[in-house]
Amino acid sequence: MNRTLVLVRHGESEWNAKNLFTGWKNPDLTPLGVEEARRAGRELKKLDILFSVGFTSALVRAQHTLDLIFEELGQPNVPTLKDRALNERHYGDLSGLNKDEARDKWGEGQVHLWRRSYDVPPPGGESLKDTVARVLPFYCQRILPPVMRGERALVVAHGNSLRALAMVLDQLTPESVTTLELATGIPIIYQLNADSTVASKTVLGR
Asked: Domains plus CATH for the chain?
């Protein structure tokens, strides 16, 4: 399994469970989120993948998920790089608000536009396009080089930062990426060709 890249969205967070816009806020995992992370680790363990390097964001829910996955794999000492380039999209003035309350305040259509458009940011926050602009350079400079050397990399991040990576890997357009949904705690395994395109993609636990 050379040139292996595995992406995992963190397990359910305390604010996911409360239906709050989270962004760069820093809640931890719920008990369900912990179990989702451990289950991801157990699914990967069945494949006997030995990881060379891990990448995660500056936020605790992703870091905790990564730690639990490596614990289940019996690989607790894998070198890991934590960087805010992989943080969730910043929701600005929406951060910490209940999604239903946000709809009451700004209207269903406006909140849907902020959540699902590619290039319209919420007040004080980032659009998906903005998130792509910080994630992709990090991918090209830090994640891709070891993978292309034949190492196996695990990236645990967030719904929108992983959607940014999926734009490149799955060759999605700005229109098609807005409909992409990534479930919490589900590993996605990519095998890359020598030119860094995708040779195969496997979604575990589905």
From this structure: 4-203 (3.40.50.1240)
36 catalytic? Reply is no
Q: Which amino acid is located at 180 in the chain?
A: L
- Hunting for tokens 């705690």 — which residue is that? 185
pLDDT at 49 over 70: yes
> pLDDT (tens digit, 9 = 90+) per residue, 58-76?
999 999 999 999 999 999 9
- List CB contacts of 52: < 8 A, sequence separation 6 or more: 78, 79, 146, 151, 152, 153
In DSSP terms, which residues pair with 29 in a beta bridge? Answer: 13
Local structure of 21: helix, strand or coil: coil
| Sign of the C-alpha dihedral computed for residues 70, 74, 76 and 80 taken in this order | negative
Residue among 88, 90, 126, 158 flagged as catalytic: 88
> Which residue shows structure tokens 């959607």?
163
Six-digit token string for 90:
């910043």
Asked if 90 is an active-site residue, the reply is no
